Amino acid sequence: MRKIVSLLLFFYAVSLAAQDEIHSFKGKLNGKIAFELVYGYYGNRCAGYMYYPNAKSPAPILVVGHPLKTDPKDPHADNLYREGFEEYQPDGEMTGKMDIQYYEVEGDYQFKTGFWQNPTTGKKLPMTEVANLYGGLPAWWPGEPKTLKAPNREDYSFKVRYEKDENGLYDVIVDCYANGVKTEPEIREYMNYTLDGENLNQFGFVTEEDINFDGIPDLIVNTGMTTHAQNTQVAYVWNPVTLQFYRVEGFMDIVEPTFNKEKKEITTVVRDGYEYAYFETYKWVNGVLKQVSSKREKLFDE
């Protein structure tokens, strides 16, 4: 038993060393909502998780941090640290921002002040009753965030291939490479068009396009055509904070999109039979693409 305990302590120490150090706090938002914040470092990157133990379905939420300026007039300014965090759901939506300050006292961390902010409304909730979360990593800890060691966007390249299933239908697959080494994610989408070996390249391909207007190329995978002979695509948008690609839900409904960089909006004309079409407009809100208008009009005047 003693050997097993020693091995567990060894591996835990190695894990901490790999991330440089772990910080962990627990407290309440506005004196009501219990939270636990645990994060680590790897080089100049900082990431971890926010956890709400009393939520209906508690689950770790990715947070990515960065240093902020501290008050030089603070009486303990030399030992004062300030960090900002962004909180991201698995689909890439940012659901919170945080600003925390703490002192380092003889290798320990003493919380000073902090708040959580709603990124849409701007409402702030103060962090209260905050203390260190001792006892090692909590049971809910899902492992080191991929963000800490993820490749940068410029490191990626892509290759397209196809696979036929037992029904003779094709999937288009985009393999991602970082610095020449195959990495996550593997993008696999079904082709919604009857294909043969001669027209695969015509309908199944990947292009790099800045679809969320942040100046960084994202991915569009062409997957075929609609019954009204309009091209269909799926999209994966790159988040430069989390260093991940996120599949854009509902993008296949935006057939043959037009990207307006000045207005930062995406428009489409979806045919509804021969005479009519829906003219639709989409905008990005906290990393999620949302439809903001839709109007059915005649395509041709009589």
What does this structure look like?
There is one protein chain. With 302 residues, this protein is mainly β. It contains two helices and 19 strands. An eight-stranded antiparallel β-barrel has the order 1-2-3-4-5-6-7-8. It has a four-stranded antiparallel sheet with strand order 12-13-14-15. The chain has a four-stranded antiparallel sheet with strand order 16-17-18-19, with no helix packed on it. A hairpin with a 2-residue loop joins strand 6 and strand 7. The termini are far apart.
Descriptors:
single chain, 302 residues, mainly beta, 2 domains, eight-stranded antiparallel barrel, four-stranded antiparallel beta sheet, elongated
Please report the total strand number as a whole number. Answer: 19
Helix content: under 10%
- How would a crystallographer describe the biggest sheet? 8 strands, antiparallel, barrel
Runs in which pLDDT lies below 50 for 5 or more consecutive residues are: 1-19
What series of H and E elements makes up the topology? HEEEEEEEEEEEHEEEEEEEE
Mean residue pLDDT: 85
Tally of individual domains: 2
Question: What would you call the structural class?
Answer: mainly beta
Q: How are strands sequenced across the largest beta sheet?
A: 1-2-3-4-5-6-7-8
Beta-strand content estimate = over 45%
- The first-to-last residue Cα distance is 86 Å
Alpha-carbon Rg, integer: 24 Å
**Which shape, going by the Cα principal axes?**
elongated
Count of separate DSSP helical elements: 2
